[in-house]
Design brief:
The structure is a single chain. The protein is α/β, with parallel strands linked by helices. Helices cover 33% and strands 25% of the residues. The protein has an eleven-stranded mixed β-sheet with strand order 1-2-3-13-12-11-10-8-9-7-6, with helices on both faces. A two-stranded antiparallel ribbon has the order 4-5. The two termini are 34 Å apart.
Length: 293
């Protein structure tokens, strides 16, 4: 066990037993989709009455055993291309701005909306790729379509106030077009700068139901944000061996939010690196939590 994992366990691990994570996603409005492949992640330990857990992640099993071509093309059983008929690459006008987005699902009247923000060097193609990251984006597409939701993967032009304003406009547009139904913002890696910027925008927060931060940066001011003060739910996922952003520091933010009574979850992938959360995050569990809290 690495020093990082040992330190994390001294803070979080109250019980140790290898059990499947599928129970996490059993309650909530989203019905199962390939849960036997995506939700049966072995839980090594849990704490905080189930609010935090450590998942057993193994590259040999979770990359080489899952992909036909490691990190490039997942095995066919992980993918269902049915959402392709509901998929568009388009340029949309929102709040006086134009955004290039990938959209899966209806443009209006959706039961919920998920907006995924890529990291540095990415664009909308990353979140629309069915075969990379172990088929995890394909699962997200299928969960959206099967449950009457809509999934957006916008191209973020900058990770500053301009990018934040673009995504705030997209959130507002989704809120209006869905009739006020839940809008979830999920940010990966450097894309978390967008989530944190949104968290300080009172109007954007009012249009938002919850957030997921996947391998994101650590923002010490997040617990003071409008989002946190509104007690809106947030789910963090992180790799224990992330060399870009600290898992331990992110866990500290989680603990601060939890102590303040904010609905929050923290999932750590043991031995996972910076990109692991995008591959391994259980979208059904996360969305069920964020939509219902």
């Amino acid at each position: 066990m690495s020093t990082a994992i040992f330190t994390f366990c001294t803070l979080f691990c109250l019980s140790v037993a290898i059990v499947p994570a599928s129970a996490q996603s059993s309650s909530g409005p989203l019905k199962p989709f390939k849960d036997e492949l995506f939700s049966n992640q072995p839980v090594l330990s849990t704490s905080d009455n189930g609010a935090s857990d450590i998942i057993d992640y193994q590259e040999i099993r979770d990359i080489n055993g899952r992909d036909d071509t490691p990190e490039r093309r997942v095995k066919r059983q992980y993918v269902d291309l049915a959402p392709k008929k509901f998929q568009e690459l388009e340029t949309i006008a929102v709040g006086g701005r134009t955004l290039e987005v990938g959209r899966v699902g209806a443009a209006t009247g959706q039961a919920f909306t998920v907006i995924f923000i890529h990291g540095r060097g990415g664009d909308r193609r990353l979140g629309m790729n069915d075969y990379t990251f172990g088929g995890n984006f394909n699962r997200l597409k299928n969960l959206a379509v099967a449950n009457g939701g809509t999934y957006y993967a916008p191209s973020v032009r900058s990770f500053d106030e301009k990018g934040v304003a673009d995504i705030a406009a997209l959130i507002a547009d989704a809120n209006v077009k869905s009739g006020g139904r839940p809008v979830i913002l999920a940010c990966a890696s450097m894309g978390s700068f967008i989530c944190y910027g949104i968290s300080r925008d009172a109007q954007a927060v009012s249009n938002l139901k919850g957030m997921a931060i996947l391998g994101g940066a650590v923002d010490p001011d997040f617990p003071k944000s409008v989002f946190a003060k509104a007690k809106k739910p947030v789910w963090f996922t992180h790799g224990s061996e992330d060399k870009v952003y600290s898992a331990q520091q992110q866990a500290g933010i989680f603990r601060t939010l939890l102590k303040a009574g904010q609905p929050t979850r923290f999932t750590l992938y043991q031995s996972g690196t910076h990109g692991t959360p995008v591959r391994m995050t259980d979208w059904r569990a996360a969305l069920n939590f964020l939509i219902t809290h």
